[in-house]
Amino acid sequence: MRTIDWVDGAVELVDQTLLPDKLVMLRIRTVAELVDAIRRLAVRGAPALGVAGALGVVLADGDPAQIAELRAARPTAVNLAWGVDQAAARLPQGREAVLAAALKVRDDDIAACHAMGERGADLLEGDRLRIMTVCNTGGLAAVERGTALGVVQTLHERGRLAEVLALETRPLLQGARLTTWELARMGAPHRLVADSAGPYLLAKGGVDAVLIGADRIAANGDTANKIGSYALALGAERAGVPFVVVAPESTIDQGTPSGEHIAIEDRGDDEIVTFRGVRVAPEGTRALNPAFDVTPHDLISAIVTEQRVIRP
Fold first, then answer.
1. What pLDDT band is residue 199 in, cutting at 50, 70 and 90?
2. Is residue 76's pLDDT more than 90?
3. How many Å from the N-terminal Cα to the C-terminal Cα in the chain?
4. β-bridge partners, 13
5. 101 to each of 53, 225, 287, how far by Cα in Å?
6. 311 marked as binding residue
7. Per-residue pLDDT tens for 37-53?
8. Among 307, 287, 294, which Cα is nearest to 171's?
9. Is 104 marked within a binding site?
């Protein structure tokens, strides 16, 4: 199954807001529909957003206003703007050239996820590994296989995976809804963990490595990822557990010198005070809702990309 693809003149993507209850493919024909899908997280995950950005330029048909709106739909994930730029660079050559560039972004992502899975599995030492992860970094976050969860899949295929401890991941429970769904389809042993329990379990010695994805990696190695990643990095350092970031080269933003320059998206009140339309906090309660945090490079054991292993 592909999370996002170009099919008969339109973008087709999994509506991730309906998982795990329903597996529904959306057919997107306009930039406005794609921007809405991006903003409401029907499509999400840095690599998938890169592909969405590239394919969206095809839908924009050269309109600079639509391309600019698409590029700015999510501020933290650098891959969205990167994907838009890859396809938009071919606008002078015409629509077919733009489509070819967008499909190359898609195909390169598939190849990159396979390569990251191999590199990450090679990096980790030991058999029957217990892996902790946050958010969703599988095929749903890319086109196929994924980043950090792609490493998990390779470990599982090699018979080296004992168990995955998946954090539920506030505010939209992407770990609970999406990661566990993917792990079940993979046949990988797993248990779900409350976000706040992650560092405690690291301290108790129940984890061999922490694997996360990335939405933007600054030039110095500071990494923005789903909120909760920083707490795991602190817990991993204290416990002496490897903390490994898995992300494609396109997520490294040489134009952002360090983590303090990464814009962190605040997604407002509703995702905290309600869940699936049901209020869980008293009427009038306000929320502070940063969707991401930044892990300093000195807390990261290694960054695995499709090309190399970086030790920040």
1. very high
2. no
3. 34
4. 4, 26
5. 11, 27, 41
6. no
7. 999 999 999 999 999 99
8. 287
9. no
Question: Exposed/middle/buried for 47, CB within 10 Å: 0-12, 13-18, 19+?
Answer: buried
- The response to whether 117 counts as a known ligand-binding position is no
Active site residues: 215
- The token pair at 127 is 């058999």
Residue 21: its pLDDT value, please? 96
Q: Which residue has the higher pLDDT, 171 or 34?
A: 34
Residue 149 contacts residue 182 (beta carbons within 8 Å): yes
Distances (CA, A) of 80 to 24, 46, 69, 166: 23, 7, 11, 25
Of 199, 237, 220, 231, residue with least CA distance to 303: 220
Phi first, then psi: give them for residue 158, nearest 5 degrees. Answer: -85, 0
**Of 231, 218, 229, 246, residue with least CA distance to 123:** 246
Beta bridge partners of 252: 217
Q: Give dist(CA 128, CA 20) in Å, integer.
A: 28
Q: Which sign, positive or negative, has the C-alpha torsion 216, 217, 222, 226?
A: positive
Amino acid, res. 299:
L
Give the residues across from 119 on adjacent strands. Answer: none
* CA–CA separation, 199 and 206 (whole Å): 10
Contacts of 31 (CB under 8 A, 6+ apart): 56, 59, 60, 63, 66, 67, 69, 70
39 marked among binding-site residues: no
Predicted confidence at residue 1, as pLDDT, reads 85
Residue 46 labelled as part of a binding site: yes
| 251/82 Cα distance (integer angstroms) | 8
Q: Which residues contact 49 (CB under 8 A, 6 or more apart)?
A: 38, 43, 74, 77, 79, 80, 83
Residue 258, token pair as written in the block = 């360090």
Residue 45 to residue 39: CA distance in whole angstroms: 12
Length of the chain as a residue count: 312
Residue type, 42: A
Q: Measuring CA to CA, which residue among 179, 156, 166, 181 is closest to residue 133?
A: 166
Q: What is the DSSP letter of 263?
A: P
Answer yes or no: is 86 a known binding residue: no
